[in-house]
Amino acid sequence: MSHTERTLYSPFQLGPITLANRMVMAPLTRNRAEPGNVPGPMTIEYYAQRASVGLIIAEATQVSAQAQGYIATPGLHTPEQIAGWKKVTDEVHARGGKIFVQLWHTGRMSHTAFQPGEKAPVAPSAVRANAKTYIPGAGYVDTSEPRALELSEIAGIVDDFRTAARHAIEAGFDGVEIHGAHGYLIDAFLRDGSNKRTDAYGGSIENRARFLVEVMTAVVGEIGADRTGIRLSPVSPVNDSSESQPQPLFEHVVRELEKLHPVYIHVVEGFTGGPRDNAPFDYAALRKLYSGVWMVNNGYDKAMAEAAVAGGHADLVSFGRLMITNPDLPRRFKENAPLNELFKDAPLYGGVGPHGYIDYPALPA
Ligand code: 8OZ
Fold first, then answer.
1. Is the pTM of this model over 0.85?
2. Is 184 marked active-site?
C-alpha cells in the first residue's frame, strides 16, 4: 500500500497488517485484571469499544511473576492469562480492529508485596526509585529497595520476554510493544541514574543498551521484526528516571534498533502526561537514524496530530486519556465532534464496576 496519502484518517500498512487509520490507542495501565492477573469480561468490552482506532496497544502486561510492580496488572505468563487475552483479541478482531500488547518487567518500580516469596524486586543496581506504587490495604507506598541482578540472571529475563512474546501471538495479538520507557527494567538499564553496574551491562552507553538490544533480538527472533515494536521516553523523568546524556544514549539505541528493524519505534516526547518541553531533546535527529515507522505520543490533540502526520513528523500518533474518554475518537476527530471529559468521580486506576471504564459513551450511530 502506498503511503502517499498522508492524513491521520487514511489507512496505513504496519508490517503485515493494515490499520484503518494512523491513530493509535496508547498502552494504558488501568489495574482492572481479575484474580490471577487475568483480563476479565469488562476488559474485553473496554478494548472492543475502541476497535475503530487504527491500532490498540493493550496495557503493560508482565512477562513473569517477578515482573509485576502494581496491583491488578495483567500478565502473559500463565495459561489462564493467555486464554483471557484471547477473548480480548477475538472481540477486537471481530469488530475490525488490530491489537498489540505492551510487555514489561517493572524492575525496581515494584514492591516486595508483589514479588514471589516477598523478595526484593530486581534492578540493574541496588538503587531505590524515589517513587510510589499502590498496595491494597496500605494505599500508596514507597517502592522497595531493589537488589542488583546477578550477571547470570539476565539471560533468564531476556527469555521471559521471548516466551511472553510467543504467548502474545498464541493469544491472538497482532504484535507486541516492548516497554523500554518510564524507568521500568529496560529503561533502568539504559540510564546512568539507575544503572551503576561495572560489568558488560553498565558503564558505557553501549553496555547500558545491551539488555535492551538482547531483549529486542530475542523477541524479533521469536515472533518477527514485523510484529515487534518498542516504546522509549528519552527525557521523561517519571518514576525517578534520570540520565546525564540522553541525546547520545538514545541515538545509540536507535542506531542499534535500525539494525533489528522493529515494526515501529514509539517515542514519548517530553514528560509523560506533562510538559512536552521539560528538557531539550532533538527528536528530529533521532528519527533521522531510523528508516522504519515512527510513532509519537504525549499531549497530542487533533490539530497537533493532523499536522504531525501531514508534515511527516510521524507516521502514527498515539493517544492516552483521549482514548479512555472517547471510545470512538477517530470518528470524533474526523467529524469535529465534541470530546468527552474525564469523569471526576471515577478513578483512572482500579475501580470495581463499569463506571469510568466501559461507560464513556460513543456518539449515537
Ligand atoms: C501509570 C500507572 C502505572 C503504570 C507507564 C505502565 O508509565 C505505566 C504506568 C502508568 O508506562
1. yes
2. yes
